[in-house]
Write a structure and sequence with these properties.
Number of helices: 13
Enzyme class: transferase
Pfam family, one: OTCace
Number of domains: 2
Radius of gyration: 19 Å
GO biological process, one term: L-arginine biosynthetic process via ornithine
Protein name: Ornithine carbamoyltransferase
Number of strands: 9
Bound molecules: phosphoric acid mono(formamide)ester, norvaline
Mean pLDDT: 98
Strand order of the largest sheet: 7-6-5-8-9
EC number: 2.1.3.3
Structural class: alpha/beta
Low-confidence stretches: none
CATH architecture of the largest domain: 3-Layer(aba) Sandwich
Shape: globular
Order of helices and strands: HEHEHHEHEHEHEHEHEHHEHH
CATH class of the largest domain: Alpha Beta
């Protein structure tokens, strides 16, 4: 495992290894002794083209707790691909730090970085995917349902976006069934679904345009914003087209009693999810957010700490 750019690049064994390391580091931290300094002397450069709370804090704190250092760079100072080419930025950083994590618009910036260095490149979200979020989400399912999730079902309701794609991909690798309801025109790209199914013909994937159709038989219901970063101009149109896709008490009443609710956050309360669901007994959104710290430690420890 050299980089963490997209879930599709990982084998199930590699995903399970990252999760095992993440869970072990979480247990070690919970023991009160803190983590071993497995990244002592190492630095992660973190580059943001878009805003972030969870991703920034989880990676920076993870580096600190593992004995390393993090440098946070905003795009107004770096100008990735504008002030300087992606390749040149990467070559410069490679002589000074031990890994680069980036949140970008165009996914190809991440693959271009990886093509220009042997140090780890980590995807902190691109328009295409959000693999580190998906790892934390699976940790949260493990916390609820146990280590073997094969045969469980994750249901995603909303936009067929970066978060949805990484979830579909990780579910396909771990034997988790995945169902998704989106408005017409907001489905996961068919080429991506075809590629996932080609790699995992046994993957149980269901797509619908009706939320009621996918919540009846599930273990977890997931949603994300209807307006991702960079889509602000489409907001009015999207809010209209996603009408009926809100996670609310009426929809939740149609799901099995044990089904939990997840959201990668930030949540737009009253839009894609109601307060009563977010703050209700079936919500796991805050433990899910906290698992970002542990999942990101797993990624860093494996890629940079030889774990
Ligand atoms: N879920 C997530 O990636 O949150 P941030 O955008 O705050 O990092
Ligand atoms: N789909 C959202 C996720 C935010 C964490 C976005 O890309 O803005």
């Amino acid at each position: 495992m050299k980089h963490c750019i997209t879930i599709a690049d990982f084998t199930p064994e590699q995903i399970n290894h990252i999760l095992d390391v993440a869970i072990a580091l979480r247990d070690q931290r919970a023991s009160g002794r803190g983590n071993d300094p497995i990244l002592k002397g190492q630095t992660l450069a973190m580059l943001f083209e878009k805003p972030s709370l969870r991703t920034r804090v989880s990676f920076e704190q993870a580096m600190y707790e593992l004995g390393g250092n993090a440098i946070v760079l905003s795009n107004s100072e770096v100008g990735l691909g504008k002030r300087e080419s992606v390749a040149d930025v990467t070559r410069v950083l490679a002589g000074m730090v031990d890994g680069v994590a980036a949140r970008v618009f165009e996914h190809t910036k991440l693959t271009e970085m990886a093509d220009n260095t042997s140090m780890p490149i980590i995807n902190m979200l691109s328009d295409y995917s959000h693999p580190c979020q998906a790892l934390a989400d699976i940790m949260t399912l493990i916390d609820e349902f146990g280590r073997d999730l094969a045969g469980r079902t994750l249901t995603y309701i909303g936009d067929g976006n970066n978060v949805a794609l990484s979830l579909a991909s990780i579910c396909s690798k771990l034997g988790i069934n995945f169902s998704i309801a989106t408005p017409v025109g907001y489905e996961l790209p068919q080429t991506e679904v075809d590629a996932i199914l080609a790699h995992n013909p046994a993957f149980k994937f269901k797509a619908s345009t009706s939320p009621a159709d996918v919540v009846k038989d599930t273990d977890a219901i997931y949603t994300d914003t209807w307006v991702s970063m960079g889509q602000e101009e489409e907001k009015a149109q999207r809010l209209k087209e996603f009408d009926g896709f809100q996670i609310n008490d009426e929809l939740l009443a149609q799901a099995p009693d044990h089904a939990i609710v997840l959201h990668c956050l930030p949540a737009y309360r009253g839009i894609e999810i109601t307060d009563s669901v977010m703050d209700g007994p079936r919500s796991r959104v805050f433990p899910e957010a906290h698992n970002r710290l542990h999942a990101q430690k797993g990624v860093l420890a494996v890629l940079m700490g030889n774990q």
